[in-house]
Write a structure and sequence with these properties.
With about 425 residues, the chain is an alpha/beta fold. Helix content is about 35%, strand content about 20%.
Length: about 425
């Protein structure tokens, strides 16, 4: 009798990123156990899950308790992370995690400079990597000094997307400001939800100037699979996560990504996002992602680069599958794209030619953030969730920010609301 396959534990099952991992593992024929802080989330409705283990609260103690529960019910598993907070928890509680599951993640000294956005700028500058002009602030006084001396527009982002940040800034992973007074529109005090921030000068360009490289590197640091791609639109517009993305070759970005990860000694999931400046045509790093796949990782899977399978097999010391010839793919966030198109059009921030080209592509594999091998349950649940939010707010209140934006640089807070926060880039 063949031994039972080792289960995959996916931390962050309530996100589209977690769902993409589960969907990518379906052909492996292994049990996929999701750990979720919100077991009722649309992503948790998918048939790709063997079981969902609820996480009582977002702290380390409850995540580790959920992992112990998964271990007790299903045995030792291979842990694949789909949530930034869990990357930190695993890094800081590695001995306890290693007793319950196999996971590929380097030591905390390698992870922290890439995970912590305030540490990354100094690290990247010290290694000669291209980053925009940046200030790291840890007090209201330091923030005021940065806002008084830097060139606007500026992007303000917390050192990590903490639980407190996501509670008050559900749709915005970063915020763009055009003057210091824009902070008054936030509705909360920055240092009440995070203790450090990165303030960066805005890199001019459209959403279609954002490129990314997704990769998985085995325990030895060897790239197993890598794909590059391009965002066409984001939600929220200008500062959000992917709403429409396509595969696109970019050898320069691929080389840069591996130089960054080599310098950090990184293994496991890794990616790099850059923005091409319309001012000088150069690529500037906006953020790395380590320890977990990106929101649009299903694009890589559809293009023949299955990051999740590479991670599962590497964690267990299994041989990697034969490489698959790259194929073109298009990825859509089903609820984010319509809103991105509406707001982007009203603000004059759409690259219409690239949008039409992406949606009209023939001979490409198409995949959605909430799609999983023909299972429409998650996307229906996502639309119901969004419709419920709009109804609760009232139709007029939901649409008013869209139709009355005062100028193309209106505060991001004035955009339409979005469903539950999504970690990643």
């Amino acid at each position: 009798m063949d031994p039972q396959p080792v289960p995959a534990f996916v931390a962050g099952a309530d996100t589209p990123t977690g769902l993409a991992v589960a969907a990518a593992l379906q052909d492996e024929g292994v049990p996929v156990i999701g750990l979720a802080a919100d077991p009722r989330a649309p992503a948790c409705r998918a048939t790709a899950w063997t079981a969902i283990v609820p996480v009582a609260a977002p702290g380390a103690a409850d995540w580790l308790a959920a992992l112990r529960t998964a271990h007790a019910r299903h045995g030792r598993g291979a842990l694949l992370i789909a949530d930034d907070a869990v990357v930190r928890i695993v890094g800081e509680h590695r001995a306890e995690v290693d007793a319950l599951a196999d996971v590929v993640l380097p030591g905390w000294e390698q992870v922290e400079p890439l995970l912590d956005k305030t540490a990354f700028h100094a690290w990247a500058t010290g290694h000669g990597f291209p980053v925009p002009a940046t200030a790291v602030v840890s007090s209201p006084i330091e923030l005021a000094e940065a806002l008084a001396t830097m060139r606007y527009p500026l992007v303000v982002k917390p050192f990590e997307r903490t639980t407190a940040w996501q509670a008050v800034s559900k749709r915005d992973k970063v915020r763009r400001i055009d003057s210091a007074s824009d902070l008054d529109t936030w509705g909360f005090r920055p240092f009440d939800v995070a203790d450090r921030y990165v303030v960066q000068e805005w890199i001019p360009g459209l959403d279609s100037d954002v490129w990314f490289c997704l990769t998985y590197r085995d325990r030895s640091g060897r790239p197993v699979v890598t794909r590059t791609g391009r965002k066409i639109t984001q939600w929220p517009v200008d500062t959000g996560s992917s709403a429409l993305a396509v595969t696109a070759d970019h050898p320069q970005l691929e080389a840069l990504t591996h130089r960054v990860l080599d310098a950090a000694g990184h293994v496991g999931f890794g990616s790099l996002e850059v923005r091409r400046s319309s001012r000088d045509g150069k690529l500037y790093i906006t953020e790395p992602t380590v320890g977990r796949p990106n929101l649009q990782s299903a694009l890589a899977t559809a293009a023949g680069a299955n990051l999740a399978v590479a991670a599962y097999r590497d964690a267990l010391g299994l041989p990697q599958p034969e490489p698959v010839r790259p194929r073109p793919a298009v990825w859509v966030h089903e609820s984010g794209l319509p809103r991105s198109l509406v707001v982007g059009a009203l603000r004059g921030r759409l690259d219409v030619v690239e949008i039409v080209a992406a949606l009209a592509r023939r001979g490409t594999t198409r995949v959605g953030a909430f799609g999983a091998a023909g299972d429409r349950t998650p996307v229906r649940a996502e639309w119901r969730r969004l419709a419920g939010r709009l109804l609760r707010r009232g139709e007029q209140r939901a649409l008013e920010p869209v139709v009355t934006l005062p100028n193309p640089r209106a505060p991001i807070d004035q955009q339409v609301d979005t469903p539950a926060p999504e970690p990643t880039s």
